[in-house]
Amino acid sequence: MANMITFSKTCNILNQDIQAMRRTVVNKYPILVKLNCQDYIENGLNVDDSLQVAHRLANAGVDAIESSRTGINSLEKEDYYRNEARAFKREIRITLILVGGIRSYELAEKLVENEEVDYISMCRPFIMEPGLINQWASGDHSKALCKPDNACLKSGRKGTGVRCLVKSV
Ligand SMILES: Cc1cc2nc3c(=O)[nH]c(=O)nc-3n(C[C@H](O)[C@H](O)[C@H](O)COP(=O)(O)O)c2cc1C
Questions:
Q1: Distance (Å) from CA 61 to ligand 1 centroid
Q2: One digit per residue, pLDDT tens: the chain, 169 residues?
Q3: 169: exposed, middle or buried (Cβ count in 10 Å: 0-12, 13-18, 19+)
Q4: Who lines ligand 1 at CB under 6 A?
Q5: CA 137 to chain centre
Q6: Dist. CA 123 → ligand 1 center (Å)
Q7: CA diameter of the chain
Q8: What is the CA(99)–ligand 1 centre distance, in A?
Q9: 55 DSSP 8-state letter
Q10: % helix / strand / coil in the chain, to the nearest 5?
Q11: Is 164 exposed, middle or buried, given 0-12, 13-18 or 19+ CB atoms closer than 10 A?
Q12: Contacts of 16 by beta carbon, 8 Å cutoff, 6+ apart
């Protein structure tokens, strides 16, 4: 851990924020936290750090953690941080949601059925195919067409709106 004081302070702030949120929403809404499981940079967050944060979040009364990872360009392997997710599932006793790279119905189903995660979530595929879940629910389990070019992100950052550039050409 590069800087224990900063880490500890950050966790305390997080804890205060969660308490304030809980006071506001009481039990009417679940509180979900998206947590990067690893930074892959020098002195950045590693899996052990994020597990510590996750424990603190669970103790603070968070309902679920959505585990993510940087490096969202690399989709050669669809479940590119399944191992980190397994560590979370093993260690943390609250609902675990996995986001990042999932494009196949079959993989999503397997991850949940095998109890590697409780839920999966997806982001970029819905920019290209907003009807994807209805399509899967209707029995057409074709893989999401989204490619990891991140053009949707770039277009959002440029101020030209979040949209799929592949679809619009
Ligand atoms: C346009 C866009 C905006 C995003 N904004 C955020 C954000 O504000 N905070 C965040 O944690 N992740 C953000 N993400 C990342 C997604 O929540 C998700 O973790 C990432 O796209 C990987 O999931 P996917 O492979 O299903 O797209 C954004 C992604 C996109 C495409």
A1: 24
A2: 556 678 888 889 999 999 999 999 999 999 999 998 888 788 888 899 999 999 999 999 999 999 987 655 555 566 666 778 888 999 999 999 999 888 999 999 999 999 999 999 999 999 999 999 999 999 999 999 998 788 898 888 988 889 998 876 5
A3: exposed
A4: 34, 68, 72, 99-101, 122-124, 152-153, 156, 162
A5: 22
A6: 6
A7: 51
A8: 9
A9: H
A10: 45, 10, 45
A11: buried
A12: none
Instruction: Note whether 35 and 49 are within 8 A (CB).
Output: no
Structural domains for the chain = 4-122 (3.20.20.70)
One-letter amino acid of 102: I
Q: Closest Cα to atom 16, ligand 1: which residue?
A: 123
Q: Collapsing DSSP states into helix, strand and coil, what is residue 111?
A: helix
Alpha helices, DSSP H only, in 26-139? 47-59, 82-91, 105-113, 124-128, 132-137
